[in-house]
Design a protein that fits this description.
Helix content is about 35%, strand content about 30%. The protein has about 150 residues and is an alpha+beta fold. Strand 1 (about 40-45) and strand 2 form a beta hairpin. Helix 1 (about 5-15) runs parallel beside helix 4 (about 130-145). The longest helix has 16 residues, at about 130-145. The structure holds methionine sulfoxide. Methionine sulfoxide binds near residues 74 and 97.
Length: about 150
């Protein structure tokens, strides 16, 4: 549940950074982890037919490599779409990172139309994320694409 003001402030701050590549993506995770409701945030890079966890803020997870098609993260890639999951307990294709997680959002990062990775956030409350969060993460994804390497 991000407000339009929080979204524009976060994007303005992140845009000031001169970092690129993995350092920029790690910075983006740090900024996102400060947003209320973002209890775990990570960036997964697509490597062939697997997602690899490149950077995260929050508790360590077992899911550092996720095959395309598996879980919310892998199915976002195979279905070529973002995912906003209000209640993970109702999700059949789901990999649990923490028993505390109640909701999740995944937004794809694309370069020249190709999926190159994704931003994943988990929340400890049901329906922690909405369309405004998806929009903010899409803004972050665009910055990541511009500063990919
Ligand atoms: N829940 C994800 C796995 C990643 S963790 O949330 C960190 C999924 O179902 O793919």
């Amino acid at each position: 549940m991000t407000t339009p003001q929080q979204r524009s402030e976060l994007i303005a701050e992140l845009s000031k950074s001169e970092l690129r590549g993995p350092e920029f993506r790690a910075l983006a995770m740090t900024y996102l982890s400060d947003v209320s409701g973002y209890d775990w945030v990570g960036f997964y890079r697509l490597d062939g037919d697997e997602l690899m966890l490149e950077s995260f803020v929050g508790e360590p997870t077992d899911h550092v490599r996720i095959p395309v098609g598996t879980g919310v993260c892998g199915s976002a890639v195979s279905e070529n779409r973002n995912k906003v999951i209000d209640d993970v307990s109702r999700e059949t294709n789901y990999l649990s990172c923490s028993a505390k997680t109640k909701s999740e959002i995944v937004v794809l990062v694309r370069r020249e139309g190709q999926i190159v990775g994704q931003i994943d956030a988990d929340g400890h409350t049901v329906a922690a994320f909405d369309g405004e969060d998806e929009g903010m993460l899409q803004d972050v994804a665009r910055l990541m694409a511009e500063r990919w390497a």
